[in-house]
Amino acid sequence: MIRRLATLLLTGLAASSCFGSPPQGSQAPTPSAVPSVSEGPPPTYLVLQTASATGNTMSTGVKIIDLHGLVAASASFTAPPTPQLANCQSISQPPVRAAAGAAFYADSGGVIHRLDTTGKTTTAATFKLSNRLQFLSYAVRSDGGQLMASIISAPTTSNGHWTLDLETAPLGGATTVVKHVDLGADLSSGAIVMAGWDSVGPTATADSDLCVALTPPSVEYAGAALVHLSISGAVLDRLGGQ
User: Fold this and answer.
1) How far apart are CA 90 and CA 189, in angstroms?
2) What does the DSSP 8-state code read for residue 215?
3) 77-133 confidence digits (pLDDT tens)
4) Is 191 inside a domain boundary?
């Protein structure tokens, strides 16, 4: 046992002599400077979406929680209904977003509310919903100053057409419809669903699946490519996906 331990120590010393000090007369290389990593401050709040059912009534809530787990602000609301279509599973987007230190949430009429950490609630924008067969998705610019929404309407009659409306609004300001598209009787392409907003601009999924026969592994942003949109609703570069 003692011999084996001595052998291991000698091997270690030999390795140290090979990879330790430089040979006599040579100069040790100067370590290259390691660039500092600049990171933004960590988030001080988290936004949580909740849901609860009482009988046939579904209530949705939003909470702003600090890093100690304490609720700084909360609100309850009725979210936009998920369209019920024949022979398929509808894919709707979450009504809650977070941007610029606040939570945003959409109610059943398409009004987007802003909840800040003090508990104050204001109207951020209105993307009006007129019936229960409309898919609403929206995004908020990172500074909270502008919103963009997609409203995809399913046919209300047997010979009706699907339609797409892309709308924008400054925070607290009037809504503008920047693009209206007749998608035809069969929704095979053209469905744009808002996904987010990065440093380039709004992001969305193009040719999105809104209704599928089998529930996909993720019920958000299913079966589509992620793209950038211009503020006028034009599809720009493709970021990834199918």
Assistant:
1) 16
2) -
3) 999 998 988 878 888 899 999 999 999 999 999 999 999 999 999 999 999 999 999
4) yes
Query: What would the two tokens of residue 173 be?
Result: 């300001």
Q: Is residue 180 part of a domain?
A: yes
Determine the structural domain holding residue 168 and report its residue range: 79-241
CB-based contact 226:195 (threshold 8 Å)? yes
Q: Is 178 exposed, middle or buried (0-12, 13-18, 19+ CB in 10 A)?
A: middle
Mean pLDDT value of segment 4-31? 33
Dihedral class, residue 123 (left if φ above 0, else alpha if ψ from -120 to 50, else beta): beta
**Helix or strand holding residue 178 (H, E):** strand 176-184
Beta-bridge mates of residue 136: 151
Q: Domains in the chain: how many in total? A: 1
Would the CA dihedral through 149, 150, 155, 161 be positive or negative? positive
Helices then strands (H, E): number in the chain? Answer: 1, 17
Task: Tell me whether residue 127 is in a domain.
Answer: yes
